[in-house]
Amino acid sequence: MDEQYDPRKIEQKWQEEWERSHLFEVDVQADRPKYYLLEMFPYPSGKIHMGHVRNYTIGDVVARYKRMQGFNVLHPMGWDAFGMPAENAAIANNTHPAEWTYDNIAYMRNQLKQLGFSYDWSREVTTCTPDYYRWEQWLFLKMYEKGMAYRKEAYVNWCEPCQTVLANEQVEAGMCWRCGQPVRQKKLNQWFFRITDYAEDLLVHCDQLPGWPEKVTTMQKNWIGRSQGAEIRFAVEESDTVIPVFTTRHDTVFGATFMCLAPEHPLVPQLAAGTEQAAAVSDFIERISLQERTSKAVETYEKEGVFTGKYCINPVTGRRMPIYTANFALMEYGTGAVMSVPAHDQRDFDFARKYDLPIIPVVNPEGETLVAAQMTEAYAGDGLMVNSGAFDGQPNRQAMEKIADLLEAKGLGRRAISYRLRDWGISRQRYWGAPIPMIYCDTCGTVPVPEADLPIVLPEDAHLLAGGRSPLPTLDHFARTTCPKCGRTDARRETDTMDTFVESSWYFERYCSPKCNEAMFDRDAVAYWMPVDQYIGGVEHAILHLLYSRYFTRVLHDIGLIDYKEPFTRLLTQGMVCKETMSCPQHGYLFPEQAREERGTLYCTLCDRPITLGRVEKMSKSKRNVVDPNVLLERYGADTTRLFCLFAAPPERDLEWSDQGVEGSARFLNRVWRLAGTWLDVVQGVASYDGPVESLPDTLRQTYRKAHQTIEKVTRDIEDRFHFNTAISAVMELVNQMHAVGPDDGGADQRKGVMRHALETVILLLSPIVPHFAQELWHALGHAQSTLAVPWPVWRKDALVQEEATIVVQVNGKLRGRFTTAVDTDDDTVKQLALADERVQKFVGDKAPKKIVVVKNKLVNIVV
Ligand code: ANZ
Ligand code: ZN
User: Cα–Cα distance between 211 and 565 in angstroms, integer?
Assistant: First the structure.
């Protein structure tokens, strides 16, 4: 062992050794318990950032820990390799997305290897390779066959000047990010997965995921957004048309005075046709089509609309209700039509006041009578029914049930449930994605690609077109094909590609048998490894990625490929990596290079004023506050970097970057290294102490006990909550205790045995965290095997006992004395000992204390 700790030397050495011995490669071993540890795979954006380092370090510690616990651990890594940034980079740098992607993968793989992560690289999965996405195409065909995938018209963001579809993130304040012209909504035929069929099942199981953070299941539930209510049918006057509406407040149906249809509702132009409103309506539709139509955006617009020229009839009152089309009605929710009850819904109220429509209160607050003309806002609460015929005077919640009964009895409506969740639109009008395996033929219509023709390979000889348009539609040798049904040679392929969320919805199954050529995966391998025992990733994926993965798992289940429904048993969402920002009283936010340091104070280089350290912000390129992992690796090595990430904060919390923190981590490793160096020769060749505890002399006994207490603490911290920071603190305490042992403590054999035990304990407890460091010391202690092959240390219960406890005594909350007694002494004895203390006596005097509180093994508070 070298005198100096030189991470560069030992890290490379052990990484090579691990690779040579295939240490991290695993196979199905039916007789051994498995543990599947998965971190969210990265997008190969160029190089890894601190967020990756943190995520993967957390995962690696658990993987290594579980291995030492005897589990057969699957710990794979791969690349979520399709997606838009590759196209943008390709256009900007005049390269091909494939080239850019594979270069990035090579670079990032190397970075991950340098961090010493225990990945089974033989299972690496890259989603942009045909041997991966062919199975996704295969599943698409299965879903199509079962009606789980279908095609319909839907809106996309369209930029006319660029002639291209834009992703939501390419629309900036309604304008195209590239040319700055307004973006409009355009209808295109697109493919959808029928995730809404699973809305209820996905929702119900949110409450059966005890290993998930509650905030994540809550987000999922809100996203699914179940509403219970009724569908009520409104007949259009002098017509056969009936408009169903979804409402959660059917108790207010007597107060519905007008109707609002979404501008996209197909009935709107039909109703207006031939009326004098026709022109105004089509202008309105046109204008709205330029706006963003997400419910979030729509909430912020002022409510507006136009009369369609037609009326419908309120089914319970017979009242004529004008039909409007309004911007706040969304086509994507319920039925796209709203019965407007202005007295009890604020949007309807605003709308009614604006267009002078009647307001009829039907629910009075307890002890109050609403008068329409005097209302300044809608009343959304509960109360007693009014203006509602036979229901007047009843509590509205009770009337609600009876009104639902009435509607159902008369065939005017029915109880209904509506979900906010929409079907998953997977068509992307982009190049760098998995082709959708469908063919359009003028004779046969939509024809699925025969299974034997898979994969439909994305042609890699395509050149990206300016504006980001996909070259696929113009690439004849791809787009033109023969109809598999009738043989027509002028059939066309689907040239849209799949949403990249499709790839990430089943990669965890692929890892189980990544080279399987006959199917998506080998069923036995998946039956053994799945579900994932622990999934770790960013909270930014808490909704879509996790929901889609849960959905896909249900699809695979219902197709009969697997027998579980939930893919991830436990989930950990780690916090962000942040850094304190600097700001100058004059210049505000400063980038790091705009500051200089002088004798511990920071100054603004623009005006020389002292800088204040301010808010803690997420590391990001745009803030130029990122710390490059490469720099850390070079300066400190992988182990210090890993140690810092784990020590600085518990995983689910944000981690605040600190240079001192990294320095501190490096110092600790150096301290352990030196300690090991001092004892190495002494303990060489002796066995770890395992004898009686009581007979050890003081310092050795305390050290031995401390070692076992530390084992217990670290194990529980990892096992219960992944609190590596407190685990590391505990090891630091043990190291401190070891420093207290001198060369003359106890007999030589005892001393050597106890110190060997303590040293081995430190090394093994640290080994998942700083694996190269630990392996080197383990080796130096004379062990040939990998630390991963060593069972995780176990604590001796009899060695844990703390014989004596120091009890603090307070009188009226003030510290007045302390004494030691045997651990777990009963409360009465402790009280007597406290009262017998001389100093305490002085403050208590002769009076009988009012109250004595005992906190076991810690404190006595006497109130006088
Ligand atoms: C009448 C009514 C009266 C309503 C009242 C509310 C209050 P949640 O609870 O979020 O599910 N709604 C229905 N479809 C809509 C659409 N496509 N676009 C915009 N709004 C729509 O919301 C259900 C309520 O949202 C429904 O209940 C309906 O307004 C409106 F005092 O019907 B309500
Ligand atoms: Zn055909």
Answer: 15
Backbone CA torsion sign across 34, 39, 43, 49: negative
CA distance 859 to 98: 67
Residue 396 CA, ligand 1 centroid: distance in Å: 17
In terms of residues, how long is the chain? 864
pTM, rounded to two decimals: 0.87
List, for residues 793-803, the tens digit of each pLDDT value: 999 998 887 66
C-alpha to C-alpha distance for 686 and 111, rounded to whole angstroms: 39
**Residue of the CA atom closest to atom 21 of ligand 1:** 338
Pair 230, 250: CB distance under 8 Å: yes
Strand, helix or coil for residue 294 = coil
Protein residue whose Cα sits closest to atom 28 of ligand 1 = 247
Contact 407, 479 (CB under 8 A): no
The Cα–Cα gap between 466 and 463 comes to: 9
- Residues forming a β-bridge with 79: 126
Written as one letter, the residue type at 450 is P
Quick: pLDDT tens for 150-198: 999 988 888 888 777 777 767 777 788 778 888 888 889 999 999 999 9
Q: Are strands 612-618 and 577-584 parallel, antiparallel or unpaired?
A: antiparallel
Rounded CA separation 220/549 (Å): 12
CB within 6 Å of ligand 1 — which residues? 227, 246-249, 252, 262, 328-330, 333-334, 336, 338-339, 341, 344-345, 418
**Closest ligand 1 atom to 340 CA:** 1
